[in-house]
Design goal:
By secondary structure, the chain is mainly α. It folds into 2 domains: 55 residues, no CATH class; 302 residues, no CATH class. Helix 6 packs antiparallel against helix 9. The model has no long low-confidence stretch (mean pLDDT 86). 70% of the residues lie in helices and 0% in strands. The chain has 15 helices and no strands.
């Protein structure tokens, strides 16, 4: 009955998405607290509910009942609309995201392009939040967030473009089906590295959390927000984290296809995509607990001087191999060599940034 009526089918699927999306932060916040607690040799939440499982529910109730304040000098419409401009593009991007071969809202022929294009609109919301708050720290945080997200969006899009080049399609289901034997991470390790790094920056997590750093800008563009509006920014952060994790699983790790193939039942496909997505989500949590924050000049220089040139290099490699009909093995070889070069350049840049502040450097400098 539902399948016969496309409008009813679309509304039901969107309803499922609308119900599931607010629940995602509840699960991810709890997992993040537990994972970071283990890394730091703590237990994490333990008091509210069994092993702290109801802690995020209690936090949600507190945020929903907390007073919603707005600075007197703030621009009312800009201030109040900013959370929606940040949240809605992320939720819309999930419409074109397949989870299994038959479980999705809509399978779009240009699904990959749609997701990348729509998710980038949230940058406007950060600028609106910073400008509308009439707070210099919020404005500085909004400007930093916009500069970071716009900059790292470029290598991320180029990494996605590299995958689309070898897959010959922008349809996510077709890209997954082409990874029945070999996932694209084998042929595109450099694109995978760039996508993962830029994905960390897109959700402003360590070492790219300077737009919201308490020691830098006292909380970033949403310092003046409270209650439900503040929680909407958190919803967007964790929804974007899940979006990038699922997208990376689909275009680099074969999604529900590799290594079981499309013959696997729906439940096995769901379990497989959940495991791959969980790997990326746990990686994001680990990065937040382990990596130090970059300075704003280091953050921008790393994007424009390291990630962007190597992203163009990956596209050029793919173009040469595809145009001249070289063996697919060369895709993995050239991309692997470029990945090693990018890792070494990043290591050298990090060493040069640390050495001027090291005690050994200061001692040598004082003697000389």
């Amino acid at each position: 009955m539902i399948a016969d009526n496309p409008w009813v089918d679309a509304l039901v699927r969107l309803g499922v998405l609308a119900i599931a999306m607010p629940l995602i932060p509840l699960v991810l916040v709890y997992l993040e607290r537990k994972v970071i607690g283990r890394i730091q040799m703590r237990l994490g939440p333990m008091r509210v509910g069994p092993h702290g499982t109801l802690q995020t529910v209690a936090d949600t109730i507190k945020l929903l009942t907390k007073e919603d304040l707005r600075p007197r000098s703030a621009d009312r419409w800009t201030f109040e609309l900013a959370p929606f401009v940040v949240v809605v593009p992320t939720l819309v991007a999930f419409v074109a995201l397949p989870f299994t071969g038959g479980f999705f809202i809509r399978n779009l022929a240009l699904g990959l392009f749609f997701i990348v294009a729509v998710s980038g609109l949230s940058i406007v919301g950060f600028l609106m939040a910073g400008w509308g708050s009439d707070n210099k720290y919020a404005l500085l945080g909004g400007a930093r967030a916009a500069a970071q997200l716009i900059s790292y969006e470029i290598p991320l899009v180029l990494a996605v473009l590299a995958v689309a080049m070898i897959g010959g399609s922008l349809n996510l289901e077709e890209l997954v089906n082409q990874q029945g034997r070999v996932p694209f991470i084998i042929w595109q390790p450099l694109a995978f590295l760039i996508f993962t790094t830029a994905g960390l920056a897109e959700v402003y997590r360590n070492p790219f959390d300077i737009p919201v750093a308490e020691s830098e800008v006292v909380g970033g563009p949403f310092i003046e927000y409270s209650g439900i509006r503040w929680s909407m920014f958190q919803l967007a952060e964790y929804a974007t984290t899940l979006l990038i994790a699922v997208l990376a699983s689909l275009i680099f790790l074969g999604g529900w296809n590799w290594p079981l193939g499309n013959e696997a039942g729906a439940w096995l496909q769901i379990i497989w995509i959940v495991l791959k997505t969980s790997f990326f989500v746990l990686f994001f949590f680990w990065a937040r607990a382990s990596l130090p924050r970059l300075r704003v000049d280091q953050l921008m220089a790393f994007c424009w001087q390291v990630l962007l040139p190597f992203a163009f290099l990956q596209v050029i490699i793919n173009g040469l191999v595809l145009v001249y009909g070289w063996p697919d093995l060369l895709l993995g070889v050239f991309s692997g060599l470029a990945t090693i070069a990018a890792a070494y350049l990043t290591y050298r840049s990090a060493r040069q940034a640390v050495e001027p502040y090291s005690p050994r450097y200061q001692t040598v400098r004082s003697i000389s």
